[in-house]
Amino acid sequence: MSRRVTMADVAREAGVSLMTVSRALNDKDGISDATRERIQEVIVRLGYRPSSIARGLVTKRTGTIGLVVPDNSNPYFSEVARGVEHTAYANNYSVFLCNTEEDPEREKAVLHSLAEKYIDGLVLCSSRLTEEDLRDCLKDFSAQVLLNRLFTSSSATMVLAHDEQGARLAIQHLLERGHRLIGNLAGPERSYGGLMRVQGYAGALYDAGLSYEPDWIQHCAPTVDASQQAAAELLTRHPELTALVCFNDLVAVGALKACRNLGIAVPKDLAIVGFDDIPLASLVTPALTTIHVQRYEMGRLAGETLMRQIKGEKERSVHLLPVTLMIRDSAP
Amino acid sequence: MSRRVTMADVAREAGVSLMTVSRALNDKDGISDATRERIQEVIVRLGYRPSSIARGLVTKRTGTIGLVVPDNSNPYFSEVARGVEHTAYANNYSVFLCNTEEDPEREKAVLHSLAEKYIDGLVLCSSRLTEEDLRDCLKDFSAQVLLNRLFTSSSATMVLAHDEQGARLAIQHLLERGHRLIGNLAGPERSYGGLMRVQGYAGALYDAGLSYEPDWIQHCAPTVDASQQAAAELLTRHPELTALVCFNDLVAVGALKACRNLGIAVPKDLAIVGFDDIPLASLVTPALTTIHVQRYEMGRLAGETLMRQIKGEKERSVHLLPVTLMIRDSAP
DNA sequence: CTGAAAGCGCTAACAC
DNA sequence: GTGTTAGCGCTTTCAG
Predict the structure, then answer these.
(1) What is the tally of helices (H) and strands (E) in chain A?
(2) Is there a domain that residue A326 lies in?
(3) Are residues B90 and B167 in the same domain?
(4) What was the pLDDT predicted at B127?
(5) How many angstroms separate the CA of A77 from the C1' of D7?
(6) Is the pLDDT of residue B121 over 90?
(7) How many domains does chain A have?
(8) Are B117 and A98 within 8 A, CB to CB?
(9) Cα separation of A12 and A30, whole Å?
(10) Better-predicted residue by pLDDT, B305 or A149
(11) Where is the domain boundary, B59, B79, B94?
């Protein structure tokens, strides 16, 4: 590829000045229809592409945003990402996708790299950073939206699923079906969402005048394998449990597998409720009763919110997305 | 956020010239350790971030690549994306992620937008464009890797899964188990991978001295719902079939559901083989026998290949990734 | 070892 | 309607 064609080439070829080309490009007025068309023709003929790099240098706007997620191959985040990307595209923005792989060092690294790219805004998902590190990193960005994490010591805009409410819905559903001994496969110990979900579990039981054994709560990594083992331990330790709420659907599937091994029939012997409603949830057997989280909508909302922020509008700081109970076969 | 700190600020504060700061930044020599450290200190103190925009304008290298996929929420592509992003990160590159949503117009639009961003390279997945449109779009990029599509009239580098071989493995497995009447839920009619998979199906049967009815091949959209309906039609039309190979795992899951409705026992009455081995495959009941495609590795390889291309190395043009048969319960 | 000058491709501000 | 000048923040080239 030889030298790329520049605005100067177009100007020369069309017999006008740089400014006139620039105006034609940006649909500004103060230019006759004739020249506009002539320039347009030259642009097409030469295959000219304006350089958003050069433009960005002068306008201080790059037309790009950053999206940082723990792992794009996790269906939860890939769906969020699609929502963000969709909104960005609709607003003529491009998005940098970065995976942190749950590694705080890597998270800092990608945030620094995004800062050097002079992105116009940032959507940050579920950060592993301490509040201090986070504050330090975020100061490089003028527009930002935090997902799934409440960041108390900042005025950053946040978009959250109503995790606590979701857990409450799950418990209420089980209580209505007569369950009183409800275990909790609670996922990672230090996840903000996980914490809220445990809070909803405890709160719903408390409100019903019931209590739970701390030992009914078992943490585990949010994967099928880790959960399968954790579920086996929990259910062996507490065979009296008649129901299990799970951190998310993957964990619930692990529990399902554990039950199959232990000869526990779901939902007859044990009811299981998941969380998130990823596509998998409706495809396993028995299909999972779970809490539906609007992941695409979450990404979309984060994107829209960010776009408004970039345009300089004031934003309210917390958006709480409602969740709903999906009743399927694992806890009918 | 006030004005961002620039190299000039650092230079002034450190009492040196712009050039010296630039040299310190880029680890060039011709600068004493003392000044280097002093500059480093000032950089940290001021929170200076070099502008990759300004740098890009002069160096013609932006440190960014583009990744275009049909749909990032599809587990196939989200995994490919993770592979690409991982390699990019390891090479200090950032990735623009774009979804085309299978829309050729949108695909052209994102490619144009990426061209204006002056990305250093492009990974393009499974294009819907005609060869002519594609050639036209690709000429804006100096380094490029095409995924899952053979582009005959170009010297572009390509990374492909061995789709035909995969289909052959599936058929051979079924033949070994005595199946002779094998249907094909063949997915979208105009997908390159789909075409190759049908070719493998036909080829393997032909090589075994067997034939198949054209009517045993039924196309459908690659979703669970579309496939469920298509499978029901096919199996009703041809109850003699004893096995079914499917375009991908989602289609296979649709077939599984159709069988459940029709009272067909899998694998006893009908064996089913999927394709891709997405996480879902091992989690449904019965677990899917399927063809494993190394999606992450595909992304990684595409990324590595692109990086070498960017560095100016000559690349061989076609990388064919091997696939393997995963025997599970749907066709033991 | 360090600095001054020029320029990357574009737009903002002001002429004509 | 259109052109001229200056400059965005950096690196390259050439002097010292």
Answers:
(1) 12, 12
(2) no
(3) no
(4) 79
(5) 42
(6) yes
(7) 3
(8) no
(9) 19
(10) B305
(11) B59
Kindly indicate the confidence band of residue B183, based on its pLDDT and cuts at 50, 70 and 90: very high
Please indicate, yes or no, whether residues B263 and B188 belong to a single structural domain of this protein.
Answer: yes
Is there a single domain that holds both residue A138 and residue A25? Answer: no
Does residue B1 sit within a domain?
Answer: no
pLDDT of B207 higher than 70: yes
- Name the residues in A196-215 having a C-beta closer than 7 Å to nucleic acid strand D: none
Eight-state DSSP code of residue A154: S
* Domain shared by A118 and A266, yes or no: no
Q: Which range of residues forms the domain containing residue B54?
A: 7-59
- Per the structure, the residue whose CA is closest to nucleotide C6 at C1' is B58
Supply the CATH number for residue A134's domain: 3.40.50.2300
Pairwise CA distance, residues A285 & A312, whole Å: 49
Same domain? For A55 and A108 the reply is no
Across the range B175-194, mean pLDDT stands at 94
* Strand blocks (E) in A5-101: 64-69, 94-99
- Is the confidence at residue A1, as pLDDT, over 60? no
Cβ–Cβ below 8 Å for A98 and B79: no
Statement: the CB of B188 is under 7 Å from strand D:
no
- Assess whether pLDDT exceeds 60 at residue B84: yes
DSSP letter string over B43-112?
HHHHT----HHHHHHHHS--SEEEEEES-TTSHHHHHHHHHHHHHHHHTT-EEEEEE-TT-HHHHHHHHH
Which residues on neighbouring strands pair with residue B183, listed in sequence order?
B244
CB contact under 8 A, A75 and B71: no
B157 and B167 fall within a common domain:
no
Same domain, B54 and B139: no
Given a contact cutoff of 8 angstroms between Cβ atoms, the answer to whether B102 and A108 are in contact is no
For residues A167 and A259, state if they share a domain.
yes
C-alpha radius of gyration, chain A, whole number:
26
Reported confidence tier of residue B153, pLDDT bands at 50, 70, 90: low
Which pLDDT value is given to residue A153? Answer: 67
Give Dmax over CA atoms of chain A in angstroms: 86
Would you say residue B252 lies in a domain? Answer: yes
Q: If you search the block for the tokens 């779970």, which residue do you land on? A: A290
Mean pLDDT of chain B: 94
The yes-or-no verdict on residue B297 having pLDDT over 80 is yes
Residue A242, min C-alpha distance to chain B (Å):
23
Could you identify the residue written with the tokens 């594609």?
A: B134
- pLDDT level of residue A150 (50, 70, 90 thresholds): confident
Is position A274 within any domain?
yes
B78 touches chain A (CB under 8 A): yes
